[in-house]
Design goal:
The chain is an alpha+beta fold. The chain has a four-stranded mixed sheet. Strand 9 and strand 10 form a beta hairpin. Helix 1 crosses helix 6. About 15% of the residues have low confidence.
Amino acid sequence: MKQCMIWALAAVLAIVIIPSVNRNGGQATREIPALELIIEDPEPGGSNSENTEQQVQPEKTVRLLHEGVVYEYPEQAYLTAVVLCEMPPDFEPEALKAQAVAARTFARKQMQSKKHENADVCSDPGCCQAWIGENALREKYAERYDAVWQKASESVCATTDEVLCYNGDLIDATYFSCSGGRTEAAVSVWGGDVPYLQSVRSPGEEDAPRFSSVVRIDSMQFRDTILSSGKGVSLTGKPESWIEEVTYTSGGGVDTMRIGGAAFRGTELRKMFGLNSTNFSVSVAEDGITFDVHGFGHRVGMSQYGAENMAEQGFDYRSILLYYYQGVKIEKKPAS
């Protein structure tokens, strides 16, 4: 407990210290697998000061690439800021803990991959995980800053060194905002099957701000965008005849859509038309094309609003994580 308090204090203080620059439907309850939690209990320590000092190890630091500069932060402080950037702080504590474990796992996996030459992770959410510094967080949360920082820090401290593993290895702990009712399997989005990233139901996401959205495009703009793909598309006749066939993934997203004789992946169309997800349907009229979209993000891994729904139902963070990441184990691994 004393060590946890030290970490919590370090997390509060660390972000204000700029280190030296070195030049990132149905009931969900029925689908939840049996829980398996692996935690290595620490050795009982003595009561003298010498033993206490031996138990408190220097905290792992994270080299963070932010706006072209690499900073070094204590891992606890870095993760606290990530939690505040990636998940609403008003979420249930168990949802925040699930986010903390996913973020820690994601960060450590990125460190192993050595994706960035001189840094462990970056602050770009399109590449690694979202992160902003203290000044930006204070501006974002104003008078709530101290309270939300404390809440996020507690979620990180309560899960210290817990990570998600599959066959003993760190997983790619991907996550996103909301799925629209069902998550997507990794193979449907990135082309490679990942045993622990499979499609599962994700009810209760309707409170997500971007649970549903509509994108309307002028027929000629749609035509020009499709023709620019270079796939030899032939778009003649009325717009109603352009879309010929649609197939869907196990997660309910568009797998392929034949347009003007050419096949387009749902992921391609999402990028081409700026859609929030691949979980969409298309309606065509003489004057334009309408995309009705559900979900926000790639929809692979943990749904953050789905996690919140589970937490509200009384599930703890371990149950949430083991539900969204199939067949994994939660292991306590001190940072090396």
